[in-house]
Amino acid sequence: MKTEIIDSPDFSFLRLTFEQAGESVISESGAMVSRDTGIEMKTNMRGGVGASLKRKVLGGESMFQNTFTATAAGQHIILAPAVEGDMKEVALAEGETWFLQRGSYVAHSGGVTIDTKWGGAKGFFGGAGLFLLKLSGPGTLFYSGYGALREVTVENETFTCDNEHVVGFTEGLQYKVRKFAGFKGLFFSGEGLVTDFQGTGTVILQTRNPSSLAAFMQPYRPVDND
Prior knowledge:
Elements: E1 2-6, E2 13-17, E3 24-28, E4 32-35, E5 40-44, H1 48-57, E6 65-69, E7 76-79, E8 87-92, E9 97-100, E10 105-110, E11 113-118, E12 131-136, E13 139-144, E14 149-162, E15 166-170, E16 173-179, H2 182-188, E17 193-206, H3 210-217
Antiparallel strand pairs: 1-2, 2-7, 3-6, 3-10, 4-7, 5-6, 8-13, 9-12, 9-15, 10-13, 11-12, 14-17, 15-17, 16-17
């Protein structure tokens, strides 16, 4: 399977070209932009009802996923994330695990498994929920972010970042969510909650965050005076 991420990092989409019949990719519901007519599509609750409900209720993802399977070599499909921004692909080795915030998962191929992980009582990602998606290899994972994506390598040090700019991180990193500069910083600095990562691994950041966009747009909302 050949992969190509196009129009990155602003309005990226993923073009997959199957090299032989029988190759397949599994995507989040609603991710398909276009596909060759000959590609077969099946929609199901992968892992059964229990796993699908857990993914929906705790992880914020759809209960249903689509499996696209090639019937001939050369067929292609185009997938895109729900929000404007960048996309990346990562090859996960057997047992390798990444954690993503809800809404960042787009698709995968191979034997990637999807589960959920408790993200902490403070809501690990501000406004995004209390649970993270846990994705384990082997297989190829495709994920997205709001704005451009940047991977930061952490090596036996402490790395601090704003919660809402965090897309995900690799297994092996420990983290602690805290208020930025105490209550004064929480309410007046504009930073809110931050996360301290420690250990060795990779943190994935997005250059924009939805809360800042919502705050920017708020003064321009029409007001009903009736």
